[in-house]
Amino acid sequence: MRVVGIKLIPLIISSALIYVVGALIYGALFSAQWMALSGYTAETLAPERWRMALSPIMPIMISLGVGILMQGRGVGDWRSGLGFGLIIGLFFLVGGRLYNFAYGNEPVGLLVLDSVHLLANGGIAGLVLGGLKAAD
């Protein structure tokens, strides 16, 4: 089975890994730092927790986007997939993330934390989708 030409199982694996890495970064490893950099406390974050329900959508969108672009470029192994994903991560995901920093009022540490996460997202998607030949 395929979703917009991308094999479903590699898409699910890629999305799940991106989700797990995000949970590790923002939950297990750097939760306190993220909250401090974002200006949250446990009390101020509580009413915003409903937004967490949206979190599965982002890895699926990233995996699909990387897969579609890989398909159009003929990327079909883990090495080229990883490189391609990192390029997408840097120039599109991190590049888009820079708008919040440039036009907002946030600390550079938050930009760095989010950028590492987004770069990892692109790399994971490219690595998994390329390695599992999801676009073939």
From TrEMBL:
The keyword Endoplasmic reticulum does not apply. It comes from the Bacteria. It holds the Pfam family DUF1761. InterPro entries: DUF1761. The chain crosses the membrane at residues 12-32, 52-70, 82-102, 108-132. Keywords: Membrane, Transmembrane, Transmembrane helix. This is DUF1761 domain-containing protein. The lineage of its organism: Bacteria, Pseudomonadati, Pseudomonadota, Alphaproteobacteria, Caulobacterales.
